[in-house]
Design brief:
Blueprint: H1 2-12, H2 18-57, E1 63-67, H3 75-83, E2 88-103, E3 106-115, H4 117-120, E4 130-133, E5 144-148, H5 149-155, E6 162-173, E7 176-190, H6 195-198, E8 201-205, H7 206-213, E9 221-226, H8 232-242, E10 247-251, H9 252-255, H10 257-295, H11 297-305, H12 310-341, H13 343-354, H14 375-401, H15 405-408
Parallel strand pairs: 3-8, 5-7
Antiparallel strand pairs: 1-9, 1-10, 2-3, 2-6, 2-9, 4-7, 5-8, 6-7
C-alpha cells in the first residue's frame, strides 16, 4: 500500500511547479471531453439508426413470403398458418408491380402495391402517416390510389385528382401491342419521411392490383410483421424449415443489409476518430508524469535508499497517472450520460437560444436529434479511456524506476 499512499500524497500536495498542475488539469479535462463527446455522439448515431430503421420498417415488411415463381396461390390458408407462429403479430397479402403514373404532361415511375386496407395496418405504418385521406378509402372496384407526398408534389396531385396508371405489360389487340392502363382517383397522400417511399410508392386495393396486373387469384406474397424486428432471421429460418418447398422467404436484414452495414461502419469510424481526443489527453498524462518524475528525482532516490523496490516506484506514478484518468473518465462519463438522456430537450433549447436550426426540415430527412443511449457503449468508452490512461503511465513510471540514487543525490 506504500506506492498507493505516496501516489495519492503526490496528487493532493501543492506543487511547486504550477506548470505541472496546469498540464495535469488539461489532461484531465481532455479525457473528460473525449469521453463526453464519444458517449453523446454514439447515442445520437444510435438514435438516427433506430429512427431510420423505424421509418424503413414502417413501410417495408419484416419478413416476406412469396413463391419461387414470383407469385403465391392459396395465400389465405398459408396466412392463417403463419399467423399462429408466436413471433408473428401481423400478416397481410400484397401485389407488387411497377408502373408509370401520368397526369397531363407530368409523368413519374412508381412502385404499385396492392393491399387489403382492413389488414394493412397490421404490417404497415402508412395509415399513421397520412397527410390527407385514409387507407380505408381504398375500395375494391373503385380504382382509388394513395400516393406519397413527394410523388403527389411532382405530379401536382391532390385529393380527388385523376391519374393514369400504366402497367409495364401490354395487351395484344388487332391494332398491335397496346399498354394496359387504368384511371385512378387519388384518395390519400402519405408522408413517411423517407424520400425513397414518398417519391416512389403508391397503394391501391388488392383486387384492383390483381386486375391491373392480371394475376388472377394469385398475389405476389405475404408480408409479416414481428414482435421483435431483430428476430427476423430466426423467424425466416423457422419458416424455411416448417414450410413445404416452393416458397422463397426473405427478411429486412437481407433487403437493407448494405444500408445498415454502412451505418455500422460509419459508427465504428466515428468512434475511432473521437477516441483520438482521449489519446491526445493520454499523451498529456505522459508529459505530466515525465515532468513529475524529473521534479521528484531526489524523492525517488531517497525512497530507493530506504528500500523501496523499482516496482514500488513504478506503482507510485502509475497510481498518480491513473487518478488523472479515473477522474477525467468519470467526469466525462457522467456528463455524457446526462447529455445523452436530455439531448432531445437540450438541442431545441440551444436552437432557440442562438436562433439557429442545426438540421433544417426542408433539407434533412430527420430534423431533430434522436438519442438512444446504450449502457454497453458507455462501459466500452469508459473502459477504453481507462485502458489508454493506464498505458500512458507505463513509460514515465518505468523511467522513474530506473533512477539511480547516487546520481540523483550527487548535487543535493
Amino acid at each position: 500500500m506504500l506506492p498507493v499512499f505516496i501516489g495519492l500524497r503526490y496528487t493532493r500536495a501543492k506543487r511547486r511547479n504550477h506548470f505541472i498542475s496546469f498540464i495535469t488539469l488539461i489532461a484531465m479535462l481532455g479525457i473528460a471531453l473525449g469521453v463526453w463527446a464519444l458517449i453523446t455522439v454514439l447515442s445520437i448515431m444510435n438514435g438516427f439508426e433506430q429512427e431510420l430503421r423505424d421509418r424503413i420498417l414502417g413501410v417495408a415488411s419484416h419478413v416476406t413470403i412469396t413463391g419461387t415463381s414470383g407469385s403465391l396461390a392459396g395465400w389465405g390458408r398459408l396466412g392463417e398458418r403463419v399467423a399462429r407462429m408466436p413471433d408473428v403479430t401481423g400478416v397481410a397479402p400484397y401485389v407488387h408491380g411497377q408502373g408509370m403514373l401520368s397526369k397531363g404532361k407530368n409523368v413519374s415511375g412508381a412502385i404499385i402495391r396492392g393491399v387489403l386496407p382492413a389488414v394493412e395496418s397490421a404490417v404497415s405504418d402508412v395509415g399513421k402517416n397520412m397527410e390527407k385521406g385514409r387507407v380505408g378509402t381504398l375500395e375494391s372496384g373503385e380504382y382509388r390510389i394513395i400516393v406519397g407526398s413527394a410523388l403527389a408534389r411532382s405530379l401536382d396531385l391532390d385529393i380527388g385528382s385523376k391519374v393514369i396508371v400504366v402497367a409495364p405489360k401490354g395487351q395484344i389487340t388487332p391494332a398491335g401491342m397496346l399498354p394496359r392502363l387504368r384511371r385512378f382517383t387519388v384518395s390519400g397522400i402519405f408522408k413517411i419521411g423517407m424520400y425513397e417511399y414518398d417519391s416512389g410508392l403508391a397503394l391501391i386495393h388488392l383486387n384492383d392490383a390483381r386486375k391491373l396486373y392480371q394475376t388472377g387469384q394469385r398475389v405476389t406474397g405475404l408480408r409479416l410483421k414481428l414482435d421483435e424486428v431483430f428476430d427476423a432471421p430466426l423467424v425466416r429460418n423457422a419458416l424455411a424449415n416448417s414450410l413445404e418447398p416452393g416458397f422463397y422467404i426473405s427478411d429486412w436484414t437481407r433487403k437493407h443489409r448494405n444500408f445498415f452495414r454502412a451505418l455500422k461502419i460509419e459508427k465504428r469510424v466515428m468512434f475511432i476518430i473521437l477516441f483520438l481526443i482521449v489519446a491526445v489527453a493520454a499523451f498529456n498524462i505522459v508529459s505530466t508524469l515525465v515532468m513529475v518524475v524529473t521534479d521528484k528525482r531526489s524523492d525517488i532516490a531517497i525512497l530507493r535508499t530506504l528500500g523501496l523496490r523499482p516496482l514500488g516506484v513504478m506503482g507510485i506514478f502509475i497510481v498518480q497517472g491513473m487518478i488523472i484518468g479515473v477522474i477525467g473518465t468519470l467526469l466525462g462519463g457522467l456528463t455524457g450520460v446526462i447529455t445523452a438522456l436530455n439531448i432531445e430537450t437540450l438541442v431545441p433549447f440551444l436552437e432557440r437560444l442562438f436562433d439557429v436550426q442545426f438540421f433544417p426540415a426542408d433539407v434533412y430527412v430527420i430534423s431533430d436529434f434522436p438519442a438512444d443511449m446504450h449502457w454497453q457503449d458507455v462501459f466500452v468508452v469508459m473502459l477504453a479511456s481507462l485502458s489508454m490512461s493506464a498505458v500512458a503511465t507505463l513509460y514515465p513510471a518505468f523511467r522513474a524506476s530506473r533512477t539511480h540514487p547516487a546520481e540523483a543525490l550527487r548535487y543535493e
